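Try it yourself: sequence plus FE2/S2 (inorganic) cluster, in.
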Amino acid sequence: MKLSLRIWRQKDRNTPGRFVSYEVDGVTPDMSFLEMLDVLNEDLTTRGEEPVAFEHDCREGICGSCGFLIDGVPHGPRRHTTVCQLHMRFFKGGDSLTLEPWRARAFPVVRDLVVDRSAFDRIIQAGGYISAPTGSAPDANAILVPKEAADTAFDAAACIGCGACVASCPNAAAMLFTAAKVAHLNSLPQGQPERDERTLNMVAAMGREVFGTCSNHGECEAVCPKGIPLEFIAALNRDVIRAAFRRRREPLHVIGAAQHPAHEDVCESNSAQKESST
Ligand code: SF4
Ligand code: FES
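Structure, out:
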């Protein structure tokens, strides 16, 4: 079959981009969407033109590197499907499709359909780990993990960090991603010693990037190829409140949340008031 494509072409992050129209022929229903782009790129290369840059690695829906907007929808029209797992049998000959990169200030365009998602890496670096003593590997069953905790951690760990949640959110918020990464380790016994620190540090790291604020639209859940549910955002909010009350820290600036002084600051200010009134 033959398709018409309007593709965002942008040389680098400092050069303005624009849509360019292409026709791609010889597309078969069993091709994946990325294989269809491979066909287009072969044709462009043969004609001496620059191929369209798009990110990919596993092509199995597990690495999270692929992803762009197809007719305005992150990863395209199929629910719970990454672009690399989207097959051309879901389209028909003569279709016109518009492809563009994630649109979010935190994800600047690197080239064509490729964006820089290193803001996600910085959130992970802030707390997406556990500390464990070195030495020989512990017995597999040395720490018992309740079934419910294992299931929750597994569901959260399904997040592949693709960024579709940010791209779909009208505020370009990264709450679903951060909530999944926090919940993954906070659900497990191994994650408990650093639970509060992890929660606060990862939320603070999210605040330092140029993501927007969550306003409960739910678009993130609707487009997430791994079906990460909004419940993880609710769990993150509970963990933030719990951690903020249990630890004395520098004031935590959580975007969109009321700021509370640390408990000790309140006590100090109360005693100062009492002294000045006596
Ligand atoms: S929460 Fe879903 S949409 Fe967001 S990065 Fe993870 S897998 Fe992608
Ligand atoms: S290429 Fe790995 S998820 Fe699509």
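One thing you can check immediately is this: Strands lie at 3-9, 18-24, 69-70, 73-74, 96-100, 109-111, 114-115.
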